[in-house]
Structures
1.
Amino acid sequence: MSKKIILGITASVSIYKSCSLIRILKKEAHLIKVIMTPNSTKLISSQLLESLTQDKVYVDMFSNYQYSLEHISLAKWAEVSLIIPASANTLAKLAWGLADNLLTSTFLALPSSLPKILAPAMNTNMWKNPLTQRNVKILKECGFKIIPPKKGVLASGEVGEGALANLEDILKTLKPYL
């Protein structure tokens, strides 16, 4: 049975892996609505993601300068939600209830019973920073499922913990909710 999935995408070099995830989920006949942070659009085009999802990609809270309740309608539509990759910035915003873009506003408007999955990806020092770890702890306490990053080659060329989890691990975590 197909599910309605909100897929949040934030600014991280591992953003390209979201394309593979979309293709896998579409093959399984799931409906996907992508919400990008403004900074993520500098790393990958919304048009590419629209062609993969065959649906509009959401970025701007107030598109076409018209007041809209898109974050509410998207939150009501969703049956499952995930953010891949989840940047340190977005983790912090969600942990502290900041709703300054369409993605964070939508996630704050999601019903508390709805599955919320985050797959962080960032530099090792950012991931291990006590502030990030505190934010992860808060998110877990609020019911978010965190798929921890793995050790791997990072954007800096260094090897360390902070690389996006393998798609297989992400799909394994997601499967019970589909």
2.
Amino acid sequence: MMWFNFFPLLVLFVGLFFPLQGYAFNPSHLQQLKNTKSCPRCDLERADLSALDLSGANLNGANLKYAILTGTNLKAARLRAANLKGAKFKQTILEGAQLQKAILREVRLQGHNLSRANLSRADLRRADLSNSNLRRTIMEATNLEHSKLTWARLEGANLRSANLKSADLSWAILEMADLRGAHLQKALLVETIFLGANLVRANLTGAEMIAPNLINAVLTHSIWTDGKTCDNGSLGKCLRIK
């Protein structure tokens, strides 16, 4: 019958235009990474990198979408501009990782240690970073819009010009953090600790602040929740410009 003659062509068409999703990475790239710890701009999409020691590895610009990173050691790894969208993180070591301009949109990194990592200009929109260790992390101009940072440890973090619009920072610790020029519009700030933080020129318009700790926080020229600008000498509270 004509159907049986057509069936092989249908299978070929499906194979060409709708490849199986389970095997998307380049096997030679995976072997190169295992052998040399250097695979910049490699295609490792959906690769299983579980439990590998990739500390200090060069993965700049690599495609790591949907990669499995369970127990992977990425301490001080170079991941600049790497695409990690959909990557599976579980007990992944990321301390000191270089993630500038990396794509980490919607990833789940709750409870992970990213202390001293560099996430400048990375895309972390809608990422879950709750209970994570972000002490002294560099997140200058990082996009954290709609991200979840509840109970996160951000002591000494650099968040200058970071986009934290509509982010949930409830119970987060931002002691001595640098938030100069940060965008905190409509952020949720329930009992958030800003002890000694620098919020000069930060924008807090529409933020929901419930019992935050602002002791010694510098608020000079920041825009308060009501849209009013804080005057010089605003320390611990916003002094409205008269």
3.
Amino acid sequence: MASSYFNMLREITLADFKLRYYDSVLGIVWVFAKPFLMFAVLFTVFSFLKRFEVANYAWFLLLGIIIWNFFSDATSKSILNMRSKSEFIKKIAFPREIIVYSACLNSLITFALNILAYVVLALLFGGPLNIGFLLLIIPATQILIFATGISFFLSVLFVKARDIAHIWEVFLRAFFWLTPIVYPLAVIPEKYRTLIFLNPLVSIINTARELALYNTIPPLFDITLVFGVSIVVFVLGIALFNRQSKYFAEEL
């Protein structure tokens, strides 16, 4: 039973990854093009406009974008999966959570390839690579758990109201600028930082940068807290999803 479950998950994940770029001229190149084109535009603009100093700003920005895109892509893809696989859900009995897991694993593959590209560029252009980079598995795991939990909530909401796809798209645009991706935490006034840290992505991105760029391990309390929040979001998300999934075939 377990083997058939994981076989189905693997097949759907890989099929979705291949089909995602099948019709495009550049194909899998888009895996790298999206974050790196985004980086090129933002780096060009903020190199002229920024009023703050950040060591290794290019790598600071690129790493933040790669991590953000993981979250954005996983959550958006989960909603898209609920739409594209609606006929599948109506006609075939299978564990519905596979739809969300496959979307998030699909985004994890993209994330891994982007990190690999980051390493290659760092080697070619003398970017910061140190032993702390190996610990990126910590923030990567945090964001995978958190994004999967959010994806479960979004998938349920999408079944109830299709407008959630458009609402989430707008939310992500605003959320990007409210998250310290193109700017450092230091530019945020002290009195607002507690509010900013209510967003788990802030701690996740900050942890990744501290490890990869500055070879510094953030406080264990901060890392543990984000893991705790991510796990709570995941557990609540999958509990809601499992409770509502029996109605999906009727509501889609």
4.
Amino acid sequence: MWTDLHERRPGQLWAFMPEPEVQLLAETLVAFANSDGGTILIGVDETGQATGQVYADEVEVALQAAVRECRPPVEVRWHQAAAEEGLAFAIVVPRSPELHSLADGRVLVRTGAENRPLSGDQIRQLAATKSTG
């Protein structure tokens, strides 16, 4: 049981989504994979409270659609987690050795609690870092 959800806040390693939104989920998958990795909590609002209004099948459908928007696909693990206020789902995104983009070509990284798009020069710098480890 995650009793400390209300103590967490969105940031460099955490993203909270009350509902699974495919585009935001895809952006966050890419940003976490291109940065230090992180965990997306679905069914949790920005204050860390579980909304209790999310179901596993809708999370799975949204996650599959979001992964299809990532180039190359982002590796993830996800599981259901019991919270004091109801169910939440954790999507764990490891840091990737590859450079990931969205289907529309945007490359994002996680900066604090934001998914930030990179410019051409920044993309080249990130790609060089990824290829050298």
